[in-house]
From TrEMBL:
One of its GO terms (molecular function) is ATP binding. This is Aliphatic sulfonates import ATP-binding protein SsuB. InterPro entries: AAA+_ATPase, ABC_transporter-like_ATP-bd, ABC_transporter-like_CS, ABC_transporter_ATP-bind, P-loop_NTPase. It is an enzyme of class 3 (hydrolase). The gene is ssuB_2. It comes from the Bacteria. The keyword Transport applies. Its EC number is 3.6.3.-. Pfam families: ABC_tran. Residues 6-237 form the ABC transporter domain. The keyword Glycoprotein does not apply.
Length: 271
């Protein structure tokens, strides 16, 4: 492949928690090509958010190297935009002003910013809502505002941390379709963190399966299925089974204990 746009080399991360050392990431190595869509999947606590925070430059205390375009990451930068699970919109700012926050560090005139903000409002399909406030939006619309804010500085890399996790199933699927449509228009390298295997297979070119304690790569799987992908297809189903098996076959994995009817209080059963 050409020189990667993102490169993790021997990355390790520990936290000090009450005098103990918690190893959150061990020996993480990954190259991401320009324009590629990589999904990182793994159970809760396996270090996915930590990895994104390191890549975006919010935390610079780690072992190894992370580089973007061959340059070491030493802090946040406009070429990396991030979208969090909770949309983190400011309730007292309009949609346009929330998106404008993504431009505070950009050397643009007010008129250029205005034009850019409105281009991105259109891109995420919220043309009629520029002056609306977050409380007037549905969960899916608010998350689209957050995506527009992540994209408005025209980053070359979009980082998404479980961006659709809090949405209902239907909105969730619509947002996945929209993310692919946005990517088709703005060819942007994308790193998505998710615990949802199906989401990873639906969207990504490559899926990195993590295992926990300490967080490390278990397997990297190429997803060669053509777009638009059919969740009900045989190939999709097979990949899903394979990845679920990878995720759940670790030694520490505890399957959820099914609740027995007899364990429930009587009042529950009567109801
Ligand atoms: N700021 C922090 N201080 C201490 N421990 C942390 C901190 N951030 C994350 N951790 C720990 O690091 C591990 C990985 O966390 P995280 O990256 O949030 O996992 P994930 O996003 O995959 O659920 C967890 O055990 C978590 O408790
Ligand atoms: Mg997380």
């Amino acid at each position: 492949m050409n020189a990667p746009i993102v490169s993790f080399n021997h990355v390790g991360k520990t936290f000090d928690v009450d005098g103990f050392t918690l190893e959150a990431i061990r020996e993480f190595n990954l190259d991401i090509a320009e324009g590629e869509f990589v999904a990182i999947v793994g159970s809760s606590g396996c270090g996915k958010s930590t990895l994104l925070r390191l890549l975006v430059g919010l935390d610079t205390q780690f072992r190894g190297q992370i580089s973007v375009d061959g340059k070491a990451v030493t802090g946040i930068g406009g070429e990396r935009g991030i979208v969090f699970q909770e949309h983190r919109l400011f309730p007292w700012l309009s949609v346009a002003d929330n998106i404008g926050l993504g431009l505070v560090n950009e050397p643009l005139s007010a008129a250029q910013k205005h034009r850019r903000i409105h281009d991105f409002i259109e891109l995420v399909g919220l043309g009629d809502f520029a002056r609306a406030y977050p409380h007037q939006l549905s969960g899916g619309m608010a998350q689209r505002v957050a995506i527009a804010r992540g994209l408005v500085a025209s980053p070359r890399i979009l980082l998404l941390d479980e961006p659709f996790g809090a949405l209902d199933a239907l909105t969730h699927q619509q947002m996945q379709d929209e993310l692919l449509a946005i990517r088709a228009r703005a060819k942007i390298t994308t790193v998505l963190v998710t615990h949802d295997v199906e989401e990873a297979i639906f969207l990504a070119d490559r899926v990195v399966v993590m295992e926990p304690r300490p967080g490390r790569i278990k397997q990297v799987v190429d997803i060669a299925l053509p777009h638009p992908r059919q969740r009900s297809s045989f190939d999709f189903h097979q990949l899903r089974e394979e990845l679920l098996h990878e995720l759940t076959s670790d030694d520490h994995y505890q399957p959820p204990v099914p609740v027995q009817v007899r364990d429930l209080p009587l009042s529950f059963i009567a109801y």
